[in-house]
Every structure is written in structure tokens, then in C-alpha cells.
Write a structure and sequence with these properties.
The complex is a heterodimer of chains A (340) and B (300).
Chain A (H helix, E strand, L loop, with lengths): L1 H47 L5 H4 L5 H9 L3 H20 L1 H6 L5 H30 L1 H7 L5 H4 L5 H20 L2 H23 L7 E6 L11 E8 L15 E2 L7 E2 L5 H8 L7 H13 L3 E7 L4 H30 L2
Helix pairs in contact in A: 1-6, 4-6, 4-9, 4-10, 6-9, 6-13, 9-10, 9-13, 11-12
Chain B lengths: L2 E12 L2 E7 L2 E3 L3 E5 L6 H8 L7 E6 L8 H6 E4 L11 H11 L5 H10 L13 H14 L4 E5 L7 H18 L4 E6 L2 H7 L2 E6 L2 E7 H7 E7 L4 H6 L1 E7 L3 E7 L10 E4 L2 H10 L4 H4 L9
Parallel strand pairs in B: 4-8, 4-9, 6-7, 7-8
Antiparallel strand pairs in B: 1-2, 1-3, 1-5, 9-10, 11-13, 11-14, 12-13
Helix pairs in contact in B: 4-5, 5-6
The chains are: A mainly alpha (340), B alpha/beta (300).
Chain lengths: 340, 300
Amino acid sequence: MTWLVWRQYRAQAAIAAALLAAFAALILVTGLQVASQWHSALATCTAGHTCGGLSNSIFLGSHAVGFLVIMTLGVPAVLGMLLGAPLLAHEFESGTNQFAWAQSVTRRRWLAIKTGWLLLGAAALGGAVSALVTWWSGPNNALQGNAFYPGRFDIMGIVPVGYAVFAMAVGIAAGALTRRTVPAVGITLAVYIAVRFLIFSLARPHFMTAVTSYFPINRSSTPAGSYWLLSSGYVGAGGHPISIPQSNSGMVAGNVGGGIPVTSLPAQCQGLASQSGRGFTPASYQAASSCATSHHVQAFITYQPAGRYWAFQGIETGIFVALAAALIAVTFVVVRRRDA
Amino acid sequence: MNTAIETHELSKRYRRVSALTDCTVTVPQGRVSALIGPNGAGKTTLLRILAGLASPTGGMVTVLGGVPRQDPAFLAEVGFLAQEIPLYRRFAAGDHIRIGAHMNPRWDASLVRDRLAELRIPLDRPVGKLSGGQRAQVALALTLAKRPRLLLLDEPVAALDPLARRNFLATLTAAVADAEGGLTVVLSSHLIADLERVCDHIILLAASKVQLCGDIDTLLAEHKVLVGPAKDTSALERAHTVVHAQRTARQVTLLVRLNGPVIDPAYQVEDVSLEDLVLAYMGAEVAPEQAHLTTVGEDR
């Protein structure tokens, strides 16, 4: 049975291996350049004590390779559409499943081995691409400090493995349900993008309870490392959030956002700020800030700490692998029902 | 004599459509049975149930002493060739032989190679580029390479030209002869003339019901055409079972299943051809109360 899968997919496997080899060569060559560029820039800035603004002053690698790296975001969807969707749909369309089923192999085994190898292939390819991208992006990750940014988080570490397995499973299930390749390909793309978007926007920020830290309004507070900022603002006495209107003039006292508008200050403090007419004098600004602080106005940021990066990678991967398992279970039921 | 296939009131419903209703048939081992019926009569459904590819919604079925099921040991005993002659069009016959070797416990690769060499069918050309007749021969050879004890063929010759059809049936006949009684075949078709040449047993399905089942020679001996004057036939109808009647002003032609000798000298008794017999049962629009009479079990 495995031999049949190999015979059916050896051409695709060869193409995928060739593309992966070409990508690996490009990534290795340019990755070494990026690494040396990064190390020399770091040595220079350390000598001149200018490392603080490094992320604004240099660009690592080339735009073309950087674009290609970002494009690996599409690898799972392509796998699902080109290999997953036709896996069953094309067999049903051309009736070749009848040939396989007429051999001494049960339908269940036929399906298990076909889907098993394809899912394994997807995981391997997704993992290999991710490993290359993660290595290549090491200097950029260190420079930018934004590991949770979706353009980075979604193409590095272990999540691409989960995405690839999920996309393949979507394709296989869509093929089993529609029994036609072209609609299955379309459904695969639509479902993959929709689920990815929903998990990213609705679930991912809440994988773990976010940390909120409070601090005086005239200071700034930056968590260590590549943290993920979810929200920031001010709270008044009793912890009530202070709403900040969209258009406002005369912001006072704050390093978070644009500051607090005067009208949102406690009533007793508004007078202090408005004494100076159109603008603040350093003294009135200071007075208003101190007044607000004494009335328990605080700044806050809500974020996921940098240390949770791998936990988030694990949770995201787990969710997509579980969804893939559910889709494969549906596929088994559909294939057994439709033809029994 | 062992029975290869035995079904009792077998039924299969797909949601609201009934594909097979109370199908009771018996096929003894070593026979070549013709499964005849118009399109949509339930032939494919019956074959798929016998092959273990579909499960019945009612009744009992025994194939080679067991219930057809998704089990490697059962599947290895049964060769099934679906109507569409499913083969991987981009793979050559040689590829199919290797696939079969990996998917079957008993696999006679040399049997396929020899047969295809005899027929001068190349092993290295994609089967999509072979003629329809060659493709059917490849598919049959591959099905026989499993060394099945039961061969189920679903309209394998329907799409073939007369010469290819004859070659295909010759291959089939040779395989049955080689097996020396160890191979039972059920072959569906709506081409009676082809089946008459290779089959010795018949199952007639019409409107999802069995109209006739039994040994062809026995059935032909039991049925006669009676031609006589147009008079009251009620006495005759009491003594025998009238399958089909054709009346003109002067003459009546009856196809009857005899329950004894025909005594009335007014009738001329003639033998019936298989084709006439099949057409009579197919077109008889058998009344429900008569339906059970039309099944002629061989092992009564």
C-alpha cells in the first residue's frame, strides 16, 4: 500500500525536494551574509555605544530574500491545495479508488496509509521550511525584538508544522466531501485562511491570561525582551479606565499613547492644567501630572511576556493539529458512509 | 455441490431509493453466472454487496462461506472489476502489476505478464494510451492475478467493440477452464447473446427484484412456448405458470413454465431461446403475487 502512495506521489515528492533544496541553498548563502552583517554592526555600535538605535539604522539582508521568507506563510495553503485536495477528490473523479478497493486492502487501511503519508510529508516540509526561516531570521529577531509579530511568529518555530498538517487535512476532507478536485481546492484555500484568521484574531491573545502592569503616568515601562503588547492606557481612582477621545487638544502627562487629555483628568486637576491658557508651561504640566498621580491615576500596559513565546507556539500548534485530527476523523466517516 | 453465493431477501436502500428488494439468489461453485437486467435494475448494487464494498440494509448474504466484509482475507478471495474499468491512466500495466504485488497476499504476476504478452499489450505504456479493449484485458488480467475464488465483473464488455468483446470473453473462459471448478464468475451485462456463449447460470434482475435465477439448461427445459387456437386458456393457466401471453384474433402464443406435461393436443409445444425467455421475464411486469414463483432455486 505504501508502495502505491510512493508510485502516485514520487513526482510531486521530487519537485518538492528540488524546491526545498533550492530554497535551502538560497537561505544558507544569504543567511550567512546576514549573520556577518549583524555581527559587524553589533561590534561597531558596541564600540561607539550607539546600539540603542540600531534597529532604525540598519537593514539586514535583502528585500527580495526577506520577501521570499515572508512568502513562506503560504506554504501550508499551497500544500493543502495541490496535494491535499486532490488526494481523494481525484481518485473519486477518475474512479481509481475502485482499483485500490478491489485489492486485498480494506478501505480503512487504504485511507489511513494515504492520509498518513501525506500528513507526514506536510509536517516534514513545513518543519524544514520553518527551520530554515527561523535560522535565517535569527539576527533580525534579535534586532527587531518583535517575535510575536504575526509576520514572524507564523513562519517560525513549530507553528508552521501545525499549519501544514492542518492545511493538508482541510484539503483531504474537502476532497472527500466534494469528490471533485476544483471545488475542493477552492474550499481548502477559503477554510484555511478563515480558520487561521479566526484563531489569530480571537483566540491567540487569550491563550494565557495576559499580564497587566501599572506604573506612574509620567514614567515609561517596557517589559523585557520580545513581549506582545495587547493594550495600554490609563486608569483613574478605583481602577476605572480613563477613556481617551479620538480628537483632543492639550494632552497632559503621559508616556503611554499620546497622554491624557485635560478633560479626562480628575476635576481637581483640570484647573491646574488650564491655568496657563493655550499651552502648558513646564510647571503647570508638572503640577497636573503630580495632581493626577496623587488622585490615583495610573498608566498600564497589558501584554504577553516574551518568556511565553514557546508556550504560545505550542498552544497554537496543538490547536491546529487537533483541528487536523478532527478533519481526518470526519474524512474516515464520510468515506465509509458514502460508499457502503 | 457447494454454493459460492447465497442471498436471502437481500435489500439495499439508498435514503429513499430502493436499489435492491428481497433478492434471493443461489450460485453454485464453479459456475459462470450471467447477471442480466436493464440499466438501473440493481446489478451493480448486488455485485458491490457481494464484493464486500457495500453493506446491505436488509436480508442475508453468504459469499464463499462467509459474510462479505472489509477484511483482507475476504477481499483476497474475491476479484471485482467495476464498470468503469478503473486503472491509473498515467501508469503502465507494469506499474499496476507491481502495485498489485504490494496489495495482495497471493499475486500471480507472471500470469498477467504472460497473458498480456500473448495479447501483445505493452507493459510499459501508460494504460490511458491503450485502446478500450486492451485496457479491459489489462484490468481482467490484473483481477485474475489475485487468484480469486469468486470473480465479479460489472458490465466489463459494455464499452467494447465486438472483436474486443469476443477476446475478453475468451480470456474469461480460459481462466475458468484453468481453475478447474475452483473459480465462480458472476458477469453482468445487458447483452444476452454475449452471455449465452460463456454462461451456464443466470440471474435476471428487473426493477430491483430477482425475476429468474437458475441453471440455464434447466430453465430452458422447464419453459416452453405453446402456440394454439385463440380459445379459453384458463385450464392451461391453472396447470402451468404463464409468463407471457401474446394473443391475436385467431391464435395465442404463451410462454409458460411447465408444471407437468402439456396434455391438450391443440397446442403446439416449442423450445424457447434464452433471449426470448429473458425478454419474456423482463417485460412480463410480473404481478407481486406471482413474483415468488419466478425464482427457481436450483438446490430445492
